[in-house]
Amino acid sequence: MSRPGFVLEVDERTPALLMHEGEGFRLEKLPLGSRVIYPPESLPGIRDVDEAIRQALAAPIGRPPLEELLYAGMRLTIVFDDLSIPLPPMQTPDVRQRIIEQVLELAAGKGVDDVELIAGNALHRRMTPAELKRTVGDRVYRSFFPDHLKNHDAEDRENLLEIGHTRHGEVVEINRRAAESDLIVYVNVNLTAMSGGPKSVSVGLASYRSLKHHHNVHTLRNSKSFNDPPNSAMHHSYNRMAELLASNVNIFQIETTVNNNLFPKQLDFLNKREWEWNLKDQASFLAVKRANDLVPPAKRRQIWHKTAAPYGITGVHAGDPAEVHPITMKNVLRQQLTEVNGPSDIGIWGLPYICPYNVNSIMNPILVMSLSLGYFFNLYRNQPIVRPGGVAIIYHPVQNEFHSVHHPSYIDFFEEVLAETTDPVAIETKFEEQFATDPWYIHLYRNSYAYHGVHPLYMWYWGAHALEHLGDVIFVGGDRKTTARMGFRSASTLNDALEMARERVGSSPTITYQHTPPLSMADVR
Amino acid sequence: MKRRWFGGLRSDWQLLRQSRDIQGRARTPRTAQPHEIVTRPSPFGTNWARTPVVQAARQVIQTGLLKPVTWNTVKPDVEGLDHLDNLDGPVVFVANHSSHLDAPLIIGSVPTRLRRRLAVGAAADYFFDKKWAAVITAVVFNAFPIERRGSDRRRSLAPQLLADGWSLLLFPEGTRSEDGWMTPPRLGPAHLCVQRRVPMVPVVLRGTFAAMPRDVNWRPGQHRVVVRYGKPIHPEPNEGARALHARMMSALARLWAEDELGWYGSLRAQAKGELSLPTGPLEIASTDSAPAEGPRAVVPNGSWRRVWEASRPMPPTRKKR
Fold first, then answer.
1. Which of A255, B260, B296, B316 could be disulfide-bonded to B283 (CB atoms 3.0-4.6 Å)?
2. Model's pTM, two decimal places?
C-alpha cells in the first residue's frame, strides 16, 4: 500500500535533499526546522488497462455505452490531448493509443467511415508526425495520417465555428469539424487538478477569440489557485463554456489519470525519499549526476527528453464530461494532495527539465517563469505555501536560450517586451493584440512548429497571481542577466538566497520546500 | 578534466555522506517516522497485596522495620490522636506532602486498628513504573496506583477500596512540595468522601521537609517533626465536594498554624477568617532587621527564601494544646 504524503520537518537526522535544477539536480542541506512537502507515494497502477478501458466504454457514466452511440454514416471526431501532457511523456504504448484503438474497433464494428482524429493543441505548436505517431500508435497513424489525423488549427478561420456566447458574453468558438460531428470522443490525460473536465474541448479545440476570455491577467489573478477549480475564475469560465458546448455538441469524454511513477528504473532514486536511498540508489545518484554534469549540454537535453515515464494508470472513466470529471479529480488528488499547516515566509521549488511547452524543446526563461510562478506556485489549495509578501527561492540555471523554431515569439517577447516592462497588466494592454495578430507568428504557428504568437504572454499571465502575491523571487544558480531582465534576482547558493531574502522576511524565516517532481499539491490549512 | 571529474564527485560524495552511517544508511527523520499507536502496559494489579498473608507480612514490616527506622531517623511529636478514638473506618486521611517520611510517619502513628486496614495512594508514574518498586511499595505501604496526569487516566481504585472497608491515606497535592510549602490540593479526596459518605481526617506534617526534602532519600539527623491529626470532617447531608474541600483546607490551615499561634490562637484566627492555606511567604521583609512597616519584597515560587523558611528547624519546645 502506498504511503500518504506528509510534511517533513528537517532535523539533524535529515540527509541532504534532492533538488531538481533544470537538466540537472543536486543535493541540498536545508536549514534545521524547514518543512518539506512530500506527495503520497506512487499509487499502484491498474493491472489490466485494456480491460479497464473496455469496461469504461461499455458502462459509461451518464451516457449510454459508446457502442450504442456509434452508427453507420455518422461523423465521428476523436480528439486527444497533445504532447503537453503528461510530463515526462508516457512510455509507449500511450494510454491515448490504447483508448483510441478500442474506440476505433467499436466504430469499425458499427460501420463508421467518417472518422477524424484531431490533437487538441489549441495555441500550442503542432505535433510533428513522429510525435503524433508516438501518441496514437503505429496502427492508427498508418490508417489516418495525414488526411484524417491532424493538429487543431486555431487560426484556420474556415474551419472554426462559433457555438455562441456564454451568459458572461464569452465567445465559444471551436474546431468546425468537431462542432459539426455527430459525436466528439475526447481522450485526455489528467496530470494535475487543473486538467481535463470542462477544459478539454473548450480549450483544446478553441481559437484565440475564445481563449482570451480566460487566459488573461484578471482571470488568472483571481484563480486561487488554478489547480483548485472551485476557487479558480479560469475554471468558472471553462464551466460556462462547457455548459454551452454541452447543449450544442455531443461529447463523450474518456478521462485517465496517472500515478507518480515519473522516472524509469535507472533513475529510481528520483522517485524515493532521500533517507530511504540504499547503496544502489546512492551509487546511481553519484554516477548519474556525474555523467549528467559532464555530458555536453545538447546531448544532455536529448537524453532527458528521451526519458519516458513508466506511469501506472490509476483510473479510466468515460461518459458525460460533467459527471466523469469529479471522479477523475478524486484520483488526481488521491495521488498528489498533502495537507500542510499554514504558509511560511519562504517557499522553495526545484524546477525539472520539462514543462508542458518544451517537450522535445528548450525550457527558455519565460517557460521557467511560467513553470515556477505559474504551475508550481499554484500547486495549492486554500492558500499558497508562501505568505503574502514572502519570498520564492527557485532552483534553475535560467539560461538565455530559446528554441528558434518552437518559440519564435518568445524571443521577441523576452528581448522587446520584458526590456520595457514586466507588469502583466501593462503587457496585456500594450502588447497582446500585436503578438496575437502578427501575421508572421500566425504563419509559423500554422505551417511550422511554432507556438502561437500570444503564447509567451499567456505564460507571463500564468505567473500573474504569484507576482502579485510574492515579495521577491530569487533563482539559485540562475543567470544574473536573464533573471534581472524578468525582474527577478539570482543567487549562487541557498545561503546567499536566504541572505538576500532577509530584507523581506527577517533573519529567521520559516521555510517550506515543495518536493516536486513527483507532483505534490499542498492543501494549506 | 580529471580535476573536474573528481572535484565534483568528491563534493557530491561528501554531501551524500552527511547524516548517513558507514553503510550509507540514514536515520529516518523524526517527522518521517511512521505513526505508532502507543500501547499502554496493563495496570499493575495490587489486589494481591491485600490478601491475609501479605497483610500479615506487612504488619511485621511496618511495626518491626518501618516505624523503628522512621522514629530513629526523626523525632516525631504526634498530636491529636484522640480525635481518632471513635473512628473504626473506613476513613480518608488527607495530609500535606513534602517528604518521603510523610507516609511512614502517618502509618507509624495511626492506631493499629486503622493501620491494619489502611491503603496509601501512590503516584502510578513514580512508584509503579518499575515492577520491583511497585512490588515493594505495595507490600510495605499497601499502596495502590493513582494516575496523576494524562488524558487517558484509568479509573481509580480508591472508591472500590473504600467500599471494601479500607481506609485511605491520600496526599491531595499530588506530589511532594518543591519548597516545603503547600500547593493547592486537588478535589479528589473531597469527591470520594462525599460520594462514599465517609469522614475525612486532616493531617498536617511539619518539619519533614527540613528532615528529608525532595531530592534527598535518606538523611538521618533526628530532626523534630510534628504529625498533627485534626478532627474528622463528616460530609453534611447535601454537602457538595467543593464545600467539603473548603472545610478541609481550612482545617489544614488551622492545624499548620498551631505551631506559630498555639491551639487556641489558631482557633481564634480561624474564627476571624485570618488563616489561609500555608502556601508559604509570598512577601518577606526585605531584610530581617527591616521594620515591620518597611518595604516588603515579593518572593517568587521556588525562591531560596521560601525554602529557607520552610526548612527552618522546628523549635525544640512543643506548644501544648
1. B296
2. 0.71
